[in-house]
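so im writing up the methods section and need the LysM peptidoglycan-binding domain-containing protein record in one place, dumping it here so i stop losing it
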Amino acid sequence: MKLTCILAAALLPGLFLAGCSKEDPKSYSKVDYNKDGKIIFEELIVVFPDLTVEEFLIADADNSGVLSEREYNRFRQARDAGKKLDASAPPLAPEPAKPAEPAKPAEPAKAAEPAKPTEPAPAPAGAPQTPAAPASQAPAEPVPAPVAPVPPTPAPVAEAVEMVVAEATPTKAPAPAAATSYTVARGDNLVRIAKKFGLTPQELMAANGIKDADRLEAGKVLTIPGQSGPAAASSEVKPAVAAFVADYFAKSSAADVTALVDLYGESVDYYKKGKAGSDVVRQDKAAYFERWPERSYKTAAPTVAELPGGDIKVTIPVDYVVKRAEKSVRGKATFTLLLRPAGGSYRIIGEQSAVLEHK
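--- predicted struct ---
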């Protein structure tokens, strides 16, 4: 029996190692699914289903919208102790400063080279050449020529000049950045919405008077502060954008899954699924069309906002009717499409929708 165990250990070392080296499923590298060096809310809630937005905001000590490894370790220490991270938790210890590199010794200064004797400047053409003095004799110092006295220049008579003091033009203070709005979609949370607009969750909560970060209902219209300039909403819709939106709803009504998926980019911020590929979009659309075989959409004028980097956010109010067998549902919703220019058209890189009312 003893000999059998020794042979098994010698022949199957991989099995023994595999049984002893089980990686911690809650380690930072495991929770960071996409291996980008940071943990977002959606990644953390997979491992800790009872996570709340409030607890995530407390764990995010630097308000960056993501957790670094040090922030995650503090969060996990609290969870391993059987409690949630709250405002009473000790602050995150500052990161230890890196030791300064020793200064390199200064190189010794080079000895100055002896100055070379100055060569006399060449005489102009036609000037008599003065023979050079012997090296043993010092050259005679030149005698300066007498300078003729310069007669004093009479002071000019000053002309009377009329002094005109220009009045300073008051500088107008820059107008405060205008606020825009955002309709909360299914699966949205404050962390994701704030990150989308370059804000912190606390700024978003303050602008909308939100007390509880976990009570965010789909369809609620949020005020997004400071979104002026190119990111501000505009009623002007380019013909190419209007044509793209019309094509999107036409293919959705016709249940043309293949043609509809062709309108999407390779990676899409897709509802509560987060970043998804075209295969996820295809499965979701096919399942929806099977559940509601008949669909019709009546769209109102969309609102367009140009975002930094060239992307376009289009919000479309929609009256919809969906039917199956003897059941019919109608209502109002808003669709939000994030479009990225591609050739002469666009590709969808983000999609959200919110049902405002239904019957």
